[in-house]
Design brief:
Length: 237
């Protein structure tokens, strides 16, 4: 009888582990909800503690931003507003369709690195996106150009591949090892080419980048108005 009881207990434990593993994210969300409250309030203000955006680890901050974006998509949240401050990221923030990211006067800065290519914010084949009201800063002044032999010209502030209906407004974009904004097509694994369309860059200051202010490789209906682009120097494209 005791042997049967032990076997049943082991089975229950294994089922419990499997259930926890399968619902790990749900459990994590529930725990964080109890600890920190709503992930995003009714006005779109982001709960930094919920997504660990105040972490001293720049990789974790980037992961938190991407988790936030996924959460917004799954819950049909179209407006996200940062708490005003400085956010240092060590990886790319991937924006998804139907989201307005309001920096609210904040700075998002890319951490010191030796990468030959990076993006602070990237849009891959996504639609109806806004990025507004803040600063994006690269690591040009402290970048490690020596560890990897390369021109290191591909560090971008915003990189758009086949974005459609994208509005970039009231941003200060500076100190990139490459371009402030880079716009191009998107090639999928099936080699289908999609173009960028209906991009507006308005009332931005794009300066002190190393390669170019804005690069347009391909696109349709791209409008660039009321911007200041200056002090671009360091390497040719």
């Amino acid at each position: 009888m005791r042997k049967v009881f032990i076997i049943i207990l082991i089975i229950l434990l294994l089922l419990g582990i499997l259930l926890i593993s399968k619902n790990k994210q749900i459990i994590s969300y529930n725990i964080r909800y109890l600890l920190y409250g709503n992930p995003v309030d009714e006005e779109g203000l982001i709960n930094n503690d919920f997504f660990d955006l105040n972490s001293n680890n720049s990789i974790e901050v980037a992961q938190g931003f991407n988790e936030l974006i996924e959460y917004a998509c799954k819950n049909n949240i179209s407006y996200l507003k940062l708490n005003k401050g400085e956010y240092i990221i060590g990886d790319t923030i991937f924006l998804k369709s139907n989201i307005c990211l309001d920096l609210n006067g904040s700075t998002i800065r890319y951490d010191k690195n030796s990468k030959t290519s990076y993006s602070l914010i990237r849009i891959n084949n996504e639609n109806n996106i806004e990025i507004i009201n803040g600063k994006l800063e690269g690591d040009q002044d402290v970048h490690d150009y020596n560890s990897i032999e390369s021109t290191h010209e591909w560090g971008m502030g915003i990189r758009i591949h086949a974005g459609k209906n994208v509005n970039i407004c009231n941003l200060d974009i500076s100190n990139m090892t490459g371009d402030g904004i880079y716009i191009s097509q998107f090639n999928s694994s099936e080699t289908i080419l999609n173009n960028s369309e209906n991009i507006t860059i308005n009332n931005c200051v794009i300066h002190n980048n190393r390669r170019q202010g804005i690069s347009i490789i391909s696109g349709e209906n791209i409008e660039i108005v009321n911007n200041e682009i200056h002090s671009i120097k360091g390497t040719n494209p």
